[in-house]
């Protein structure tokens, strides 16, 4: 319990035990083509991450803009963590919405080109960056809502699973899931743990083996996402949801969150070095490189047709 409290205290870098009353500006927040209100401030933009913090509501929106498909490259993840750390330190920010600035895709997951034909040193840095990103989002004391506005396979799904609540556009063309086996690769244990924590043992057993990508209705049915909304209601619903969560005193919520997530985080932290070695060794294999190469060709060929 003491370590949970310590973890929670660390997480409680955001404002504690305060209630945010100003929910009134949410009605301005309408669509995924989001117009930031005049009260927005601390806007920061890196080349791949756009952040807007609304000082009235305490809600920050972090948008991915890494065309064409928001793949999680080493550069993207590095910029993500820098932007994230800034928000974590900002006491006026109580919650973060993760969404995409690109149409039709939330995130295509890990950048395959960072795993294919790169040096072991590069892949080590790449995997460390992913671990870092996950630890920050999954372990955050802020409320984190995923506003999923498009495809969200593999690492994109992990990103969503790391949030406290997932809202997805109600559109059967958008798919989400842990599809790694389809690429001939194996999602690490902590991807699986996040999925299992969310959809349960049996569903994750089926899901990770078959590499199932679920459409939005299926994802809702199995609990992979919490809510479906029309496209033009995505950001307003995410903001309204966030503001409802703000009614819970931060400190109590943060300790509860840390308590629930502690085992999964501790397991990952304990296996962190081995996980890096495993990834680099695995992706060194000729057979894995071949699978990744074929998958990239398939993606490109699909476009050519
Ligand atoms: C021991 C550990 C082992 C390793 C475990 C690692 C775990 C891996 C987790 C992962 O995240 S692996 C990545 C999995 N991602 C996918 O399977 C998604 C693949 N992409 C798609 O299905 C589609 O691109 C999309 C996201 C549904 C979007 O479709 P759309 O039709 O809009 O776009 P495309 O024409 O397919 O693609 C455009 C452009 O982007 C390139 N691209 C797509 N995905 C990736 C990617 N993940 N990484 C790098 N590049 C990607 C695609 O090839 C096209 O390129 P160009 O032809 O324009 O050059």
UniProtKB/TrEMBL annotation:
One of its GO terms (molecular function) is delta(3)-delta(2)-enoyl-CoA isomerase activity. It is an enzyme of class 5 (isomerase). Pathway: Lipid metabolism; fatty acid beta-oxidation. Homotrimer. Key enzyme of fatty acid beta-oxidation. Able to isomerize both 3-cis (3Z) and 3-trans (3E) double bonds into the 2-trans (2E) form in a range of enoyl-CoA species, with a preference for (3Z)-enoyl-CoAs over (3E)-enoyl-CoAs. The catalytic efficiency of this enzyme is not affected by the fatty acyl chain length. Belongs to the enoyl-CoA hydratase/isomerase family. This is Enoyl-CoA delta isomerase 1, mitochondrial. It comes from Astyanax mexicanus (Blind cave fish).
């Amino acid at each position: 319990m003491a370590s949970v409290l310590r973890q929670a205290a660390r997480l409680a870098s955001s404002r504690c035990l305060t209630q945010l009353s100003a929910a009134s500006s949410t009605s301005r927040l309408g669509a995924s083509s989001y117009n930031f209100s005049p009260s927005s401030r601390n806007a920061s933009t890196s080349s791949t991450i756009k952040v807007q913090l609304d000082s009235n509501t305490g809600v920050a929106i972090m948008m991915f803009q890494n065309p064409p498909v928001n793949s999680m490259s080493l550069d993207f993840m590095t910029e993500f963590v820098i932007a994230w750390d800034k928000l974590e330190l900002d006491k006026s920010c109580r919650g973060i919405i993760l969404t995409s600035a690109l149409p039709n895709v939330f995130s295509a997951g890990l950048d395959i080109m960072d795993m294919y034909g790169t040096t072991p040193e590069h892949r080590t840095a790449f995997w460390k960056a992913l671990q870092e990103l996950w630890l920050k989002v999954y372990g955050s004391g802020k409320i984190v809502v995923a506003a999923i506005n498009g495809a969200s396979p593999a690492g994109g799904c992990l990103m969503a699973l790391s949030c406290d609540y997932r809202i997805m556009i109600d559109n059967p063309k958008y798919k989400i899931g842990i599809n790694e086996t389809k690429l001939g690769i194996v999602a690490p244990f902590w991807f699986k743990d996040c999925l299992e924590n969310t959809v349960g043992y049996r569903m994750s057993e089926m899901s990770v083996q078959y590499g199932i990508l679920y459409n939005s209705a299926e994802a809702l049915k199995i609990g992979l996402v919490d809510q479906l909304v029309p496209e033009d209601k995505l950001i307003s619903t995410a903001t309204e949801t966030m503001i409802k969560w703000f009614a819970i005193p931060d400190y109590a919520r943060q300790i509860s969150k840390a308590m629930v997530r502690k085992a999964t985080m501790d397991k990952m932290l304990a296996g962190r070095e081995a996980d890096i070695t495993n990834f680099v060794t695995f992706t060194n294999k000729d057979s894995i490189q071949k699978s990744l190469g074929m998958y990239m060709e398939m993606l490109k060929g699909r476009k050519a047709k």
